[in-house]
């Protein structure tokens, strides 16, 4: 790291999840599945589904952002840049970042953009925000991860391998220049491997087809997510430990130095594998997939927000964020809290 650049720190964090709780038992009324199968394979007991007319990707992000701003002691008008991570934007375009700006009532023409990096989207977005602060371009950056999966899932037996996993929710952080020497984001690490792009994908309506909308309708194609679950799992359990170790190595730490690991909540089995591989006790790894399922770009900030709320992260702790998902893309961030 170039030590002449200033560091950034997370000055506030917050989350929002829709009120509607959908249990595994609820899903058994929609498809052939069982609570046992879902819990044994994924650890998930329930997830949240949005309420049409009330929750949107942008306003859930705004709800999370308000809490993060409150914790930071700031107002929406203090925000100088919005970085919005989502794979389920309100519209194909424009992105949800500008909608969040409107939702928060920010009148100033500050920049806002979306990051489409799926499960690693939030860590990528955090890394980008960190660069803007490091270079001195902005002082207050809002980083949001928000997803509505439930409206786009095949909730029949045909789609059960994917649809039981995903849930809706939002998380946000406010990034500011660090006020304490050596504290804040120590480093971020970003990777992708596009050869696996189709392993976890929503393919249609692809813009590379003539008359893409007609193509989908005429060919009776669906627009549901496809996932080669076993292959994604196989890569995830390799990339998570790798990218965590990369962050530790760069900063001269060992796995036992981690105070709290916040992995993307993809599957409890993946998290347990990573925990075992890193040799971490239960107290040093955070899991809430049991209650929310996999909320993609929202999962890391929701988990971070809950960990902070529960007092499981204290000043001076070494916190590691890590994510892996569609792309494939994967990333980590090491933070001296
Ligand atoms: O967010 C980042 C990216 N995502 C991930 O990291 C997810 C990674 N992958 C996984 O978590 C797991 O692969 C899954 C949880 C998605 C699936 O678990 P699995 O152990 O790989 O199961 P499978 O897909 O191999 O399916 C095993 C069996 C199949 O039946 P047969 O062919 O053995 O008779 C499926 O049809 O389980 C069946 N099955 C189900 N049964 C009941 C699939 N989904 C369900 C279901 N309920 N919901």
Write up this protein.
The chain is an alpha/beta fold and 337 residues long. The chain is built from 11 helices and 13 strands. The protein has a 5-stranded mixed beta sheet, sandwiched between helices. The two termini are 18 Å apart. The chain is globular. The longest helix is centred in the C-terminal third of the chain and has 22 residues, at 229-250. It has helices spanning 24-27, 35-42, 57-72, 96-103, 121-134, 160-163, 212-218, 229-250, 268-278, 289-292, 299-309; strands at 8-16, 21-23, 46-48, 81-85, 112-115, 141-147, 169-177, 184-192, 200-201, 226-227, 260-263, 318-325, 329-336. Strand 12 (318-325) and strand 13 form a beta hairpin. It binds oxa(dethia)-CoA (UT7). Oxa(dethia)-CoA (UT7) binds next to helix 2, helix 6 and helix 8.
User: Low-confidence runs (pLDDT<50, min 5 residues)?
Assistant: none
Annotation field: number of helices: 11
Q: Summarize model confidence as the mean pLDDT.
A: 97
The CATH top-level class label of the largest domain:
Alpha Beta
Instruction: Assess the beta-strand content as a share of residues.
Output: 15-25%
Note the gap between the termini.
18 Å
What would you say the CATH architecture of the largest domain is?
3-Layer(aba) Sandwich
Helix content: 25-40%
CATH superfamily of the largest domain: Thiolase/Chalcone synthase
> Main sheet: which strands, in order across?
1-7-6-4-5
Specify the biggest β-sheet. Answer: 5 strands, mixed
Based on Cα principal axes, name the global outline.
globular
Structural class: alpha/beta
Element order, helices and strands? EEHHEHEHEHEHEEEHEHEHHHEE
Strands, count: 13
> Rg, please?
19 Å
What hetero molecules are bound to the protein chains?
A: oxa(dethia)-CoA
Counted up, domains total 2
At CATH level 3, the topology of the largest domain is: Peroxisomal Thiolase, Chain A, domain 1
């Amino acid at each position: 790291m170039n030590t002449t650049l200033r560091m950034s720190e997370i000055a506030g964090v917050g989350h929002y999840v829709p009120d509607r709780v959908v249990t595994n038992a609820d899903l058994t009324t929609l498809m052939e599945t069982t609570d046992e199968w879902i819990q044994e394979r994924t650890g998930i007991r329930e997830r949240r589904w949005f309420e049409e007319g009330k929750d949107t990707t942008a306003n859930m992000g705004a709800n999370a952002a308000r809490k993060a701003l409150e914790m930071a002691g700031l107002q929406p008008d203090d925000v100088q840049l919005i970085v919005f991570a989502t794979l389920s934007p309100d519209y194909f375009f424009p992105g949800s970042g500008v909608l969040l700006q409107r939702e928060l009532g920010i009148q100033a023409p500050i920049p806002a953009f979306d990051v489409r990096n799926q499960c690693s989207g939030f860590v990528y977005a955090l890394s980008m925000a960190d660069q803007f602060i490091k270079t001195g371009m902005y002082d207050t950056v809002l980083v949001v991860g928000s997803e509505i999966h439930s409206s786009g899932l095949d909730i029949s037996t045909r789609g059960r391998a994917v649809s039981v996993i995903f849930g809706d929710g939002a998380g946000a952080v406010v990034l500011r220049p660090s006020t304490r020497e050596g504290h804040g984001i120590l480093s971020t690490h970003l990777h992708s491997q596009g050869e696996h792009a189709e392993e976890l994908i929503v393919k249609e309506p692809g813009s590379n087809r003539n008359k893409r909308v007609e193509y989908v309708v005429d060919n009776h194609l669906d627009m549901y997510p496809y996932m080669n679950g076993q292959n994604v799992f196989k890569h995830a359990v390799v990339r998570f430990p790798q990218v965590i170790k990369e962050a530790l190595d760069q900063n001269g730490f060992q796995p036992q130095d981690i105070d709290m690991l916040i992995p993307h909540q993809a599957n409890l089995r993946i998290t347990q594998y990573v925990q075992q591989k890193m040799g971490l006790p239960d107290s040093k790894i955070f899991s809430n997939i049991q209650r929310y399922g996999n909320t993609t770009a929202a999962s890391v900030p929701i988990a971070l927000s809950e960990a902070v709320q529960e007092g499981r992260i204290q000043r001076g702790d070494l916190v590691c964020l890590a994510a892996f998902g569609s792309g494939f893309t994967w990333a980590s961030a090491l933070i001296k809290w």
